[in-house]
Write a sequence for this structure.
């Protein structure tokens, strides 16, 4: 208990490496004393380790054994499978990730209460929008824009003010050359835009797709997205309060469209 709660304190102070060490100490003690692995507390220790490794430290080399153990303990709730799908997504194994995301949806449909047989509660309702966003990014990476838009729209319905969700819906419509819809989402997240600029965007959205100005304007927004959200730790442009980092595949799609 001591090391687990110590890890939580480190998380509160954004000390993620220290948090990981504390959670791992709690895990080792639990295993050494051969305590009940069906106890929800043990699940919470594993869950904390996985979340730190996946989402805070981006450590994909050590995380999979812990994910597999989560699945073994609580195979009737969607959370562990979401982590596994996300792992393969970050490894750019998008087909594998989609396969697991679909299995996750099957579990959700078959267990509406999202409670495992051992009494472990799912947090699915809290991360649904994130789940659909990441699911959509896999389809986007494979160029399947209609399914990507479907997933992003589901995420948007749950959390319409989310900065990242609006970015990816915008990107999808830009890649599909649908400037009218793209501009709607561009105006959603760009809070500093002036009224005169808004009117300019709206006027451009009314241009026919054959108009050269339409294409140039669309490409200018793509360039802005690329420069603002590419994976560059030194970039001063990627300083939004909700950071978005495009994957290599997403940047490739943007570059191909621009060219």
């Amino acid at each position: 208990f001591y090391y687990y709660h110590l890890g939580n304190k480190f998380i509160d102070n954004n000390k993620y490496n220290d948090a990981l060490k504390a959670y791992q100490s709690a895990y080792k003690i639990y295993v050494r004393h051969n305590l009940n692995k069906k106890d929800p507390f043990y699940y919470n220790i594993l869950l904390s380790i996985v979340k730190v490794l996946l989402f805070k430290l981006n450590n994909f080399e050590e995380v999979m054994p812990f994910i597999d153990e989560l699945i073994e303990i609580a195979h009737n709730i969607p959370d562990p499978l979401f982590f596994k799908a996300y792992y393969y997504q970050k490894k750019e194994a998008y087909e594998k990730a989609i396969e697991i995301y679909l299995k996750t949806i099957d579990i959700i449909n078959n267990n509406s209460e999202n409670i495992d047989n051992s009494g472990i509660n799912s947090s699915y309702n809290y991360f649904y929008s994130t789940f659909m966003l990441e699911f959509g990014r896999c389809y986007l990476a494979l160029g399947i824009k209609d399914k990507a838009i479907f997933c992003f729209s589901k995420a948007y319905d749950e959390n319409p003010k989310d900065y990242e969700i609006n970015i990816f819906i915008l990107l999808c419509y830009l890649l599909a050359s649908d400037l009218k819809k793209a501009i709607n989402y561009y105006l959603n997240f760009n809070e500093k835009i002036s009224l005169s600029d808004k009117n300019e965007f709206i006027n451009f959205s009314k241009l026919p797709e054959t108009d050269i100005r339409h294409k140039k304007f669309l490409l200018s927004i793509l360039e802005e997205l690329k420069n603002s959200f590419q994976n560059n730790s030194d970039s001063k442009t990627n300083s939004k309060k909700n950071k978005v980092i495009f994957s290599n595949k997403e940047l490739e799609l943007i570059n191909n469209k621009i060219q």
Notes: Residues 232-241 have pLDDT under 50 and may be disordered. The first helix runs from residue 2 to 12.
